[in-house]
């Protein structure tokens, strides 16, 4: 059951992060529908080279990810300037990737979707229209640097019916002390 913030959730920048299959797009789209903030699918910002590489089953390197992360940061910076909030679905697997997204003074709330490996495998095997094959799950999990105590990252156990997970995401954002007006 979703609690309500006294005056609603203040617009801010939220990066819904996690490995492939964690539900980033589903949660980000749900937040967009409920909060009315602009949404950007991070995968849509990948250069064609990255998509081709992942489609062929080859993991991306840090060098491959840099131009993509810069596009993601630019989108966030534009949303910061307009002040209406924004939601980006982006894996943000490593701490230094998250640092890139925060550059230029961009204040970002990261929402990490935590999902057990078995569930991730099940989800990835069930996907039909995505360039990221299930065979890259080990690469994603190997690259993931779980949030550290030094990072202010909200953690959501993202298992359950989609509506329940989205409601939990709203609750977590609302409970976050900077989230309520």
Describe this structure in words.
This protein is of the alpha/beta class and 181 residues long. It has one domain (13-175): P-loop containing nucleotide triphosphate hydrolases (Rossmann fold), CATH 3.40.50.300. The chain is built from seven helices and five strands, in the order E-H-E-H-H-E-H-E-H-H-E-H. The mean pLDDT is 85.
Secondary-structure content class: alpha/beta
**Number of E strands:** 5
CATH superfamily: P-loop containing nucleotide triphosphate hydrolases
Do you know the CATH architecture? 3-Layer(aba) Sandwich
Mean pLDDT: 85
CATH domain topology = Rossmann fold
Helix/strand layout:
Layout: E1 13-17, H1 24-35, E2 39-41, H2 48-55, H3 62-82, E3 86-89, H4 95-102, E4 108-114, H5 117-126, H6 137-143, E5 153-157, H7 162-175
Parallel strand pairs: 1-3, 1-4, 2-3, 4-5
Helix pairs in contact: 1-7, 3-4
